[in-house]
Design a protein that fits this description.
Elements: H1 9-30, H2 41-59, H3 61-66, E1 83-90, H4 97-104, E2 111-117, H5 147-162, E3 166-173, E4 177-178, H6 182-191, E5 202-205, H7 213-217, E6 242-244, H8 245-253, H9 258-261, H10 279-287, E7 292-294, E8 298-300, H11 320-327, E9 337-339, H12 346-351, H13 353-357
Parallel strand pairs: 1-2, 1-3, 5-7, 8-9
Antiparallel strand pairs: 3-6, 4-9
Helix pairs in contact: 2-5, 5-8
Length: 360
């Protein structure tokens, strides 16, 4: 005979009440948290093949010999002068190309230029001479994802493959401008020998005390970065850097840390998700901390940032005083570049290019 309490509404209500806490406890374990999309496997496969070619070529004896000094070889032939690879990461027109043309003028044997443009970007302006034909095969990029890391690594790999004389690799955006003449920048890079065994250093910002470091570390979830990246080794820094050739190779060779940093962030923590500001400083600080300056050569104004974007300078702000102020730095060297400038600033900047920007 069935118990008269088996279907009692009081019993059912009690069981329902008791089950509510269990639902709250178990739901997060049963339902995976919502994340941003992962990088497509096809993109990963193509990138891996590109990076392998870059590393193998850079390890070849001929590549090492070519990336040498300006002194004559034993056969009396001059070795190629060391060059700077300028890597432009963009999702819009390179509006400041005319200003960069002035910067590059007269130094075509000392630099190479490479552009990664998001395939969805609509580029309407005709390419200026230095930028013509310099766009590398690109893939989609977006904020709060590791796609910006992938794009920078593609630029590094393309530059490594293209010319063994590329000694330094400067990552810039379409909103960057130069603050000094090219010779000043070139001398700054090649005169620095403060690294171990008097080697040249990379100019990359590396911070371990940034106020939002904790939230940034856990942007992918609790303990996701372990064991490869413990919290005490996690670093943050500017997305824009100048790397030596050995560090560029180090970046495209890496798989271990990339497998962590490519993991998608949690949607609920998107305002702490800036992988491109974490991967490079963390990797280089782990592998060669003394080979890095710990500061960037690109000036950014964060005083009134909005949703992760720095201050954007407008035409009325452009002046000789602004350029001189942007040059100032707490590091050993002055800033060489600055961002973020609105496209409408081109006119005012060109007006002071010869008299201020390209004159020390």
């Amino acid at each position: 005979m069935a118990s008269p309490y088996a279907t009692s509404p009081y019993v059912l209500s009690l069981l329902l009440l008791l089950s509510i806490p269990a639902v709250f406890l178990l739901a997060p374990r049963l339902i995976p948290p919502k994340t941003f999309p992962t990088i497509p496997d096809a993109d990963e496969t193509e990138d891996l093949a590109l990076f392998r070619r870059a590393v193998l070529l850079s390890a070849a004896p001929s590549s090492t010999a070519a990336a040498a000094s300006t002194t004559p070889s034993l056969l009396g032939k001059p070795r190629p002068q060391p060059k700077v690879a300028f890597l432009f990461l963009t999702n819009s027109d390179l509006v400041f190309a005319p200003l960069w043309e002035k910067f590059f003028a007269g130094h075509k044997n000392l630099f190479n230029l490479y552009v990664h443009a998001d395939p969805s970007a609509v580029l309407t302006l005709p390419a200026t001479p230095s930028f013509s034909g310099r766009i590398i095969p690109g893939k989609a990029t977006q904020r709060a994802s590791a796609t910006l890391i992938s794009a920078a690594r593609r630029l590094l790999a393309a530059a490594l493959l293209d010319d063994p004389a590329n000694h330094f690799f400067a990552l810039l955006s379409q909103s960057c401008i130069p603050l000094h003449p090219f010779p000043t920048f070139y001398r700054t890079l090649f005169s620095d020998n403060a690294g171990p065994r008097r080697r040249r250093r990379s100019f990359i910002e590396i911070l371990d005390d940034e106020p939002t470091l904790h939230d940034r570390y856990y942007a992918r979830g609790d303990d996701v970065m372990l064991p490869e990246v413990p919290y005490e080794r996690f670093r943050v820094g500017s997305q824009f850097f100048v790397l030596t050739r050995r560090h560029a190779i180090m970046v495209v060779r890496d798989r271990r840390l990339w497998n962590k940093f490519k993991l998608p962030c949690l949607v609920k923590r998107k305002y702490s998700c800036y992988p491109e500001e974490h991967y490079f400083p963390t990797l280089l600080d782990m592998q060669d901390p003394d080979g890095c300056s710990k500061f960037t050569l690109t000036r950014v104004n964060w005083t009134d940032s909005v949703t992760g974007h720095p201050h954007t300078y407008q035409p009325e702000e452009v002046s000789s005083d602004l350029i001189r102020e942007l040059r100032k730095s707490n590091g050993t060297y002055t800033h060489m570049f600055a961002r973020k400038f609105a496209p409408e600033c081109l006119g005012p900047l060109m007006e002071i290019a010869d008299s201020v920007i390209l004159r020390d």
